[in-house]
Sequence to fold (174 residues):
Amino acid sequence: MTIVPFDVSRTGPGDPVKRFAAAAERYVVLIDDVVRSKSIGGRLEDIADAIASLYALALHLPLVDRSTDEPIADASLTNEQWQRLFEQLRDVFGDSDEYRTLPLDPSADDEVHQRSIAEDLADTYRDVKEGLDLLLEHAPEADVVWHWRFSFRSHWGKHAVEVLRAIHALLRRW
Fold:
């Protein structure tokens, strides 16, 4: 795979980075609103749409080199803030929070795993918000794109896939 140099002069509605950043901001605002209102209140479709949009747009983030080998800034959410977000989301989803699933990797064991919608949403929130916060701190855009792409492939992408299944099941019941 060829690494494309990141061109910060790109603009326009078709720019995959700008589109992903807008979707990330929409997701963070949506989750903040759900936590603030302490209710799903008909927002399941919005959450499913936001997660699906993030996933689809992350697939098109350009493969870029980081501008430095130095570590990217610390996570924008501390462990305590993440824990609070997780607990608030768990309270919102109540008895519907936990779900069971098989491993995402079809070649892995077939043992059923217990998962949490709140954990999936909170982990995704942390990873995409970190990129947004890096942009606000004027980090090099290549580093932000690298972070989003890496965290998608290594972490939050699997949370997105699993939580969509769980939310879809809830939509069928509610």
